[in-house]
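Build the 3D complex.
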Amino acid sequence: MPAAGTAQAAARADFKRPRRWGEEGIRGLLLLCALVSVLTTLGIIVTLSTETFGFLRQVPATEFLFGTRWSPLLAPRSYGVLPLVGGTFMIVLGSALIAIPVGLGSAIYLSEYASDRVRRVIKPVLEILAGIPTVVYGYFALTSVTPLLKLIIPDTQIFNAASAAIVVGIMILPLVASLCDDALAAVPRSLREAGHALGATRLEVSTQIVVPGALSGILAAFVLAASRAFGETMAVTLAAGATPNLTWNPLESIQTMTAYIVQVSLGDTPAGGIEYQTIFAVGALLFAITLAMNVLSHRIMKRYREVYE
Amino acid sequence: MSDAAWPGLPSLARRHRRAALARRGFALLTWLGVALLAVLLLRVGRQGFAWLDWGFLTSFPSRFPAQAGVLSALAGTLWLIGLTALFSVPIGIAAAIYLEEFSRPGRLRSAIEVNIANLAGVPSIVYGLLGLAFFVRGLNLGRSVLAGALTMSLLILPTIIIAAREALKAVPQSLRQGAMALGATRWQAVRHHALPSALPGILTGIILSLSRAIGEAAPLIMIGALTYIAFTPDGPLDDFTALPIQIYNWASRPQKDFHGLAAAGILVLLAVLLLMNAAAVAIRYRSQRKS
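Done.
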């Protein structure tokens, strides 16, 4: 019915507010500011991919991704990124080994056991721990953790993965604790009360009702914290060393992906050379892995929101 | 009740013992975090305090530990944060206002939202790579404070936007509706009503984001700020160094004296962060008392 359609449109036009150009201009300006973030993402992707493609023209992708020797600065040159990836994974695993039990334990304590008074002390402490710059953790690893490790195991090298993993673990601990705390707090009270009514002890309620009920939130927290450990730079650069080394021994010096990028940019590398391109190739890999982990974490989180809302 | 009632379930006494033990275990893990913080601060304090004096604050870095100081690093950090705030604060608030007050639900908004959430998780060193390729080389800004501040602005923009959105979200809808019922345009309602009442929350978020930027070293190293600088920047295009970089520089040297300097530098850095956090707490406290 075209006639009725136009009549309706005409009626709507009568009620339409006058267009305010100032208002529209402000709206456009605000949108522009919001689009800066989109431009940033585009900028990151374009920058990383151009240099990475330049790199891959000289080094085949299979050699880069699966090669087991990384020596881009010294002859004989070799561009296998696995030692850097292995070193990074060692830090992530080691730090998770510390942050996950301690973080989850603190979260259970804070949400299920602690009084308000204790929470008021612990919460700010966790916030302070989260706010300490990473270079400070690096210093702490180098001057306190490594000497301690050497005291226990004399074979420990001055730069070693264990020391860096320990401080990165301390660093991501507040993140794990506060995200898990949020996840546990989202479990409805009635579930706990039902457990207590059936005669369960507080431990049984915590571990068999509350933690399973918040599992997806807890998993999302773990993944997010792991991604943070993955991209951590200063602490591992200071404490873990600069030797690309495919090893399982955490007491040896290694190099992470981030530490390699820092090492190259400390020197004066001319733009356009293959050394310059390697840091973008490694950066692109780092970006892809952390992005995948963050997306995974958001996915898990989204699923869990649906359960209780 | 006999234990046999539930085969496989331990006796009640045992279950209670286990619960009590677990309670202590969880508490222990929690206080471990507090203890770690205490140890860290004590160690740094003990190692750095001896090096901390007026000369340390007013001298340039030097090969001789006894004469070295953080003046250029402190000045560089202040320049960096000032410029970073200049870029990131208006853009961040504007983006938050757009998303919270002007945008309609739809593809564009959810694309921007997903994008911001993902950007918040990008490692800081990747921003450094962007800054190196785009600001330092592309725009030819060199290793200047300006290049550093632009990189840092992009880094903290997602956190500023997220914090500002939260603050705007907390302002009751009735305030905007009241203004608009009296004939205000959407922008007038935001400008005169929503924004002023969200301001304390926004300021707190900004301060916390900026303190993150103060502690970041990785992106600055990427854009090449790790050089020997014995002057304070005079303009945005000057070379610079910053506190975390100076600390990294000293900590990475093998000599013990330089470690002491690094610890003293950390104390200065923590003092700056403490001041900023105190400001954030004060703002939060004042706004809570008013409402």
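Chain B touches chain A through 84 residues (CB under 8 Å).
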